[in-house]
Amino acid sequence: MKTKLIHEVRAVKSKKELANIVKAQRISEKVLSATVAKLKTGVTELQVANSIKKAYLHNGVNVLSFPPIVAFGKNTANIHHEPGSAKLKKGDTIMFDFGCTVNHYCSDMTRTYFWGEASNKQKKIYNDVLHAMNLAIRKISKGEKRAKIIDNTGRIFLAKKYKNNFKHGLGHGVGTVIHEWPNFKPKSEDILPVGCVMTIEPGIYLKNFGGVRIEDMVLITKKGYVNLTNFPKDLKSATL
Q1: What CATH superfamily is the domain 6-230?
Q2: β-strand 197-200 against 216-220: which pairing, if any?
């Protein structure tokens, strides 16, 4: 019998561990709501990132999962953009990717917005990324546990429309560290254990134009999944 490796044991969350992750996620959702409500033309990425950190402190959190990603306009095409002096202007794509920790357990969420009415190209990319996400989630809902099959479901759909553009894994395990085993990758041999928490985060990134990434966290169950993210992601909600 194969001995279970430590990362496999860690991947399966107890009720208490899961409660910490969910609590961290609910705090992040409050912070995202407050952040979106305060956006205004002319604000910089750095100012927004600082206000996100302050909002977390206000909610009793002083350890984040990772430094918040705040990107405006063309900067949203950079997967790991560090907030800078770019100012928000009409027509911009906005990307937020952040999370926090509760008792050392992390949350992770990405939402993309449009500052004003989105162009047809922005809408198309958004809807395609959302569709790729839903395809992967549907695969999980049918009980699929092979990481590469789930990754390829979203990836193949996007590859038909945007050649070689989705340049990261579809998602990763979340626990006491933000990137934990198992991983959604095209060649991953990982099999998702029941009780692990995974991100689903497809993205498209067009240089000198902008990108879209949408990310939820899901709990893998025996027959499917439970979405731990309770925040809208339809195009209407993404239009500010």
Answers
A1: Creatinase/methionine aminopeptidase superfamily (3.90.230.10)
A2: antiparallel
